[in-house]
TrEMBL record:
Belongs to the NAD(P)-dependent epimerase/dehydratase family. InterPro entries: Epimerase_deHydtase (IPR001509), NAD(P)-bd_dom_sf (IPR036291), NAD(P)_epim/dehydratase (IPR051225). This is L-threonine 3-dehydrogenase. One of its GO terms (molecular function) is L-threonine 3-dehydrogenase activity. The lineage of its organism: Bacteria, Bacillati, Bacillota, Bacilli, Bacillales. GO terms for biological process: L-threonine catabolic process.
Amino acid sequence: KIVVTGALGQIGSELITRMREVYGADHVIATDIRNNGSEVVNNGPFEILDVTDGKAMHDIVKKYDADTLIHLAALLSATAEAKPLLAWNLNMGGLVNALEVARELRCQFFTPSSIGAFGPSTPKDQTPQDTIQRPTTMYGVNKVSGELLCDYYNHKFGLDTRGLRFPGLISYVALPGGGTTDYAVEIYYEAIKNGRYASYIAEGTYMDMMYMPDALNAIIQLMEADESKLKHRNAFNVTAMSFAPEEIAAEIKKHIPSFTMEYNVDPSRQAIADSWPNSIDATAAKEEWGFKAKYDLSSMTKDMLEKLMLKLVKNS
Ligand code: VAH
């Protein structure tokens, strides 16, 4: 049985559906701080959980006799930068609770890291798996601390902890909340709804990105990988593409010729983006557990626009 925290978030809402298909609905317990009445809540076991309540988390994992804990509940980079102390308490308090529950109940453990775990002094192009990590954002501090804490629980307590440094994730099911890369999701919605988008990230700002189906495959593939083959654990660089705002705009224009892009740069999110790599190197993930992304900018854009048209028409 698998317990997932933050199950109603951008990753969780699709990971739950995918894992229920793979492992059976009753084997995947979704938890989140609220009940949004979505299919994640209605199509299988669901529990209300505030991850800052370690005892409540322990009781849920014990109740279902889970052997895997996937901890996704967290504040993303832009929100964390606006509320750094809340971010520390939630992101680190939630993580240490989850690691303690996994240690006590002997669960395999997954939590995501991010390209946000790198900072201005990190090599920016083809950022290596092992390199300098001095992030200048609270989110980045949380992610580096999280990577170190997960490695600690592995070498100190023998816990099977695994993680992925995700790039910006693009999806059409649940909107991301409070990220820096969210422009690359918003642009698709705006292109369909208004035929135009004002990007808060400046032209020429390169960031790694990946389509959500590839992110879900990566989580499942990593968690099922042969532990003896893993030289790294927390956390693997994974990416599918790196692009700047003008490039995703140009790709959208191939499908919506009338689409227009403008720029209304948000200094705080631009500063976060500028501190991150332009592109990261995913060789370790490819070599140690066969990571391979299927979608590039062209195939992602085609699929995103098709799926969003259906979704927006259905909801209109
Ligand atoms: C964010 N989407 O923007 C997240 C992610 C690499 C970006 O960590 O904060």
